[in-house]
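= Tokenised fold =
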Amino acid sequence: MIQVRRVVSPVVFLLGVCSFVLPQSTNDAIERRIDALLQQMTVQEKAGQVTLNDGDSLEVLERVKEGQVGALLNVLGAEKTNAAQRLAVEQSRLKIPLLFGFDVIHGFRTVFPVPIASASSFDPQLIEQAERVAAKEATAAGIKWAYAPMVDVARDPRWGRIVEGAGEDPYLGGVVGAARVRGFQGQNLGDPQSLVACVKHYAAYGAVEGGREYNTADISEQTLREVYLPPFHAGLEAGGATVMAAFQDLNGVPASANRHTLTDILRGEWGFNGLVVSDYNSVRELTIHGVARDEAEAAQMAFTAGVDMSMADGVYGKQLPALVESGKVPRSVLDEAVRRVLRLKFKAGLFEHPYTDPKRAQADILSPENLAVARRMAQESMVLLKNDKDLLPLDKGAKTIAVIGPLADDKANQLGSWVANGAARDAVTPLEAIKAKLPNARILPSPGTDLELSGQHYDSGATGAAPAPSSATGAVRSGGANRPRSIEDAVTAAQKADVAIIFLGEPSNYTGEASARSTFELPGEQQKLLEAVAATGKPVVLVLESGRPLDIRWANEHASTIIQAWYPGSQAGNAIADVIFGDASPSARLPISWPRSIGQIPVYYDHKNTGRPSSPDRWHTGYQFESKDPLFPFGYGLTYTQFKYGSLRVETPTISSTGTLRVTAQVQNEGKRVGTEVVQLYLHDRIAPTSRPVRELKGFLRVTLTPGERKNVEFSVGANDLGSYDANMAWIVPEGTYDVWVAPNALEGVQGTFQVEVK
């Protein structure tokens, strides 16, 4: 075996809170200013700096004046943030500014596609550009700290927060997470338009049992390190300023009190010196987990484990002074946490520029440039799953088109979950966009049915009356007012049309936090609607809007075309119409394996081979009455043309522990249209001390080719990135034979081999 220590460059984490390196003289000056402040601060003021309060109530603002609040969340708008900031920097004793945080998950006022959708683009440059827009808009509203990106690997679509991440793969999750960090933070964290990123939820939150929010996670140390931690590491290498601890317990230890992950790994192995914040109320919840007797013990456990700042529960402000006085929390530990808070505020420019210019909102929010980025992001996020007989793109000269389904003219549900400061009125619906694109066509709209049946949201087992939809997204039945809602009406429209475009899916409040589902069926009577429209014999274009894969086995057999649009955001309708009518070509790929049924979960591409992977009889790993393979594999997606792969060449057939693998292959557009292919690189270590996945993604490229055009694509992978952890959790790169594929998805591709040898 080649033993390789996984080393993180100390330069990466030198500052801990920014994505750029300041001159040492600047760093020294900041540290001197921090030292001076620490010498003047009382223990209560220090406890205040590590306290994050929700809102700006009168009681909270009084404590701001007393210097006992370090940060606020959910305070929006330059007027409100400036008013609170004025109390901190003009009336508090030490004039330390506040840090304002908010959930900027997929845009601010300009709402972008949900994160799982943008990850489907496999376009980190565009993702970075989208987050720059989000940062510009959020900072114009006084926000300086985004509780994003979420980089949790998620392999259970029942989990509502799968919508908030980049899917099942650690490599893709790392690339996307790093792009989002760079987009938020820019080149200079002190820039008024830069937003502090918060990489969350640390760690393994996507592994919760049963896909149930806040539930326990029980996984091996190897799985933790090889699957769930790499995206966090990538986000911090990109300069991620802060980290948020998760809600759940991991192997019996709640994340907010997990010294192994927070201190041993994050601080010790990775060298991270930035700020760690708890999730909402999660320090206090250590008492509910049953690991702390009371709030005082909860504060002690979380603080000494490595959580610098508590969110919303006020536990640190109440308990830390007495804990320091008693010696249960060393004063040096408190000082170091306060130092991280102050350092972040200095690097973010808050001491020099504490206020937000109110005039910025007029120019920086919902600008034409911002909407253009949102439209392109939505175009690149839609996955074409099926296109029989090249039905798409539709001819713009079509005479009569039926636009059917409860999501066809629903503004609110185009936005998805976690819409920040987005407003339903800003969204463009598919019906609006199709009418605008085809002004001379006869458009026959019909919702056909409601999006859900009353109370159906609680298929996850919750009880009681369903809550009202959030004010940000509006009612789930917001679209198509005064239009008949009957399947018969929709069938009549389809019968009169040349083609039926049907918009189905799940309400956006079925996704996000605390929105687990125990079934993947289309809610309400949508399946009946689909079957009735398909029975007309007219071509059917099915557009799905959801935050997770849905059960579309019937649709895959009977619909002519299927597009997974996810929740596309403010420019949803325009982007969908662009793709359907050929003004944009679909290029997205699935960032998750699409299950056939819920009984297959978890199903993911980089599974282990097992000792009995296949057999002509029943003695193999699989199901008696169902395929073990997904309906669509990871990385899958069609375009409006066809690509051929060939001529794979391993340029480095043998590499050493310090070498670099270089692989080339030829990709050709064999169709009649320009298209963009997402070319993917997969590897497999045949023999290792621990069993290895059948394939692992190690690279991807977006390649645009004209009809008939060929291109040689090249990938490079350092030997250290071929490694894995052995049974003793030592990082090694095993000698021997490796397989390599250049492929359009995780199940296909052209294959070669190479050797790793000691030299």
About this structure: The chain has three domains: 16-27+103-360, 374-593, 643-756.
